[in-house]
């Protein structure tokens, strides 16, 4: 899984590096005769940096934004078709019977699964290729060092004096040996820590001392400019990007420009025009003597394949125009910056932005209580008291009315008690309802506050910053892991803990789902009353999903059974906190999930 993530990053860098390489080649072609040899060489620094530094910066000025595929607008109906949520009920979690992909009505795509399998296989093939090439380079260099130990050092005093004179002129203090070696036909330099100049024995009697001075000057400039370090770095980069022929071609161009830049360094130290011509004549002699193409890995020297261009550069040598140099550098930097930056992406669409204010959590004030019914009760009791007094006075006047008065008093008393009982029950119900509403509001407030941190209420693991291995260390192995194409990742089910985590190919968690039993206290109407109008509201055959924006990074999806006549205000089944950026796939130009 980690290997696949690394390979994915390499593919992305390869694509951006290819764009940059094309841009550099174009700039070099346009200003070919206007730029100095060194500038032709140093301009490749941007490409090497792009290929070795996985810079993760996003921008809308990136050239990568133009490499897109036609996409539909993410309206609710389209989202409903593309993403069918992976619903798992509390009952199935409690029993541990987690339904399969088919049981969850998730639209599986065999083609996508096949691509994922091939992608993992490609990652394995890639690392095998890289390992093989690096192993080959290592073996060749070790073998070369072993062979050179058996070679004899040059003991000709005239050549050693020329070498020391050139070292002094170029201000090089390191100890450098001249080794007789037939492993490299043309003169070359080998070794970074203890560099050696390699010369074949058959060359000794074919060059004049002045030509040897030019040869030594060339090789010493390679050492002084640390070109061997660059050459070894290029070999490692070529091994990593062995599958990209454009990168290989570009890196070979770097080596060619390195030789030409080294020639330019030598020419800059030659004071007379006659010496420049002699240096060119020396190269012609080298081409005549060693027309056979043969090079040794890890060495630098007279690359015969490119001698024609080098001779032309020498005969037409002149300093580059400052204006052309600035213009070429500006164009290269523009191309470099735009291809070094990853394409920008936005979590929140324009429609979502307009709904953000209404979707942001705002806990409403407690509604005012209904007018107290105790006043009504007291009024009824007072009226009953007055009625009793009046009837009592009348009963004193008539004996026959006494019985009626008593009966009337009993009836009035019972009525008052009934009204008092109803009023008390009503007050108790109002208090219970108010208490329940407060509990729901507190729970919803907790859900929103934790969502802003990327967490759900029954988990300590935030999305975005947590990898699935961290969860497994704490909770143990998941009950099952399924790839869900429409949800853009793998989903690990932890039944005992009532949580499900969605993670991408880099093991990074982008979604956390909670199936906590407390969620059954939250009704659809209460959620909308507390959170406001949803930014996202989609109804399917059996469920309704509403969504809110927690902040610029995280979103909340709340899942309810679909409303019906028998269930007009359903309670929540589960909810999830989503990190949309975690589902983006730049390699396939997939913007990822928005909800």
From TrEMBL:
The chain crosses the membrane at residues 6-27, 39-57, 123-146. InterPro entries: Beta-lactam_resp_regulator, DUF4309, Peptidase_M56. Signal peptide: none annotated. The keyword Cell inner membrane does not apply. Keywords: Membrane, Transmembrane, Transmembrane helix. CDD domains: M56_BlaR1_MecR1_like (cd07341). Residues 342-362, 370-418 have a biased composition (Polar residues). The keyword Flavoprotein does not apply. Residues 9-314 form the Peptidase M56 domain. Residues 342-440 are annotated as: Disordered. Residues 422-436 have a biased composition (Low complexity). This is Peptidase M56 domain-containing protein.
């Amino acid at each position: 899984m980690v290997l696949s993530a690394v390979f994915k990053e390499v593919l992305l860098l390869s694509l951006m590096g290819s764009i940059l390489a094309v841009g550099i080649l174009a700039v070099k072609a346009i200003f070919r005769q206007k730029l100095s040899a060194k500038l032709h060489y140093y301009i490749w620094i941007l490409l090497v940096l792009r290929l070795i530094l996985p810079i993760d910066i996003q921008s809308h000025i990136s050239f990568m934004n133009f490499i897109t595929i036609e996409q539909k607008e993410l309206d609710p109906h389209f989202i409903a078709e593309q993403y069918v949520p992976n619903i798992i009920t509390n009952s199935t979690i409690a029993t541990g019977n987690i339904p399969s992909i088919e049981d969850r009505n998730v639209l599986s795509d065999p083609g996508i699964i096949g691509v994922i399998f091939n992608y993992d296989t490609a990652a394995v093939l890639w690392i095998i290729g890289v390992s093989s090439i690096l192993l080959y380079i290592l073996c060749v260099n070790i073998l070369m060092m072993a062979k050179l130990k058996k070679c004899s050092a040059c003991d000709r005093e005239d050549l050693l004096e020329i070498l020391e004179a050139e070292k002094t002129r170029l201000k090089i203090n390191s100890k450098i040996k001249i080794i007789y070696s037939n492993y490299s036909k043309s003169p070359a330099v080998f070794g970074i820590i203890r560099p050696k100049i390699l010369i074949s024995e058959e060359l000794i009697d074919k060059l004049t001392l002045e030509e040897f001075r030019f040869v030594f000057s060339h090789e010493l400039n390679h050492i002084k400019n640390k070109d061997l370090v660059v050459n070894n770095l290029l070999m490692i980069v070529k091994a990593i990007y062995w599958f990209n022929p454009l990168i290989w071609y570009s890196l070979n161009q770097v080596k060619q420009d390195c030789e030409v830049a080294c020639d330019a360094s030598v020419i800059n130290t030659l004071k007379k025009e006659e010496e420049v011509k002699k240096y060119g004549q020396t190269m012609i002699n080298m081409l005549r003597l060693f027309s056979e193409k043969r090079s040794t890995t890890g060495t630098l020297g007279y690359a015969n394949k490119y001698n024609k261009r080098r001779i032309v550069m020498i005969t037409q040598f002149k300093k580059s125009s400052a204006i052309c140099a600035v213009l070429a550098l500006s164009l290269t930097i523009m191309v470099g910056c735009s291809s070094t930056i990853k394409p920008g992406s936005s979590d929140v669409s324009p429609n979502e932005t307009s709904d953000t204010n209404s979707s942001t959590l705002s806990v409403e004030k407690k509604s005012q209580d209904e007018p107290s019914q105790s006043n009504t009760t007291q009024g009824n009791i007072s009226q009953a008291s007055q009625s009793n007094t009046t009837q009592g006075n009348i009963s004193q006047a008539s004996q026959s009315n006494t019985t009626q008065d008593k009966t009337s008093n009993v009836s009035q008393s019972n009525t008052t008690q009934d009204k008092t009982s109803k009023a008390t029950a009503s007050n108790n119900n109002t208090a219970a309802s108010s208490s329940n509403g407060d509990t729901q509001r507190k729970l919803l407030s907790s859900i929103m506050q934790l969502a802003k941190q990327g967490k759900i209420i029954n988990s300590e693991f935030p999305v975005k910053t947590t990898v699935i291995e961290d969860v497994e260390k704490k909770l143990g192995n998941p009950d099952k892991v399924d790839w869900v194409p429409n949800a853009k990742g793998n989903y690990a089910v932890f039944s005992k803990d009532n949580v499900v985590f969605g993670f991408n190919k880099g093991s990074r968690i982008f979604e956390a789902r909670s199936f906590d039993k407390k969620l059954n206290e939250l009704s659809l109407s209460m959620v909308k009353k507390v959170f406001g109008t949803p930014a996202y509201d989609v109804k399917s055959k059996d469920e309704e999903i509403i969504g809110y924006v927690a902040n610029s990074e995280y979103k909340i999806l709340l899942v309810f059974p679909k409303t019906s006549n028998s269930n007009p205000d359903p309670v929540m089944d589960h909810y999830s906190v989503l990190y949309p950026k975690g589902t983006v796939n730049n390699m396939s130009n997939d913007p990822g999930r928005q909800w």
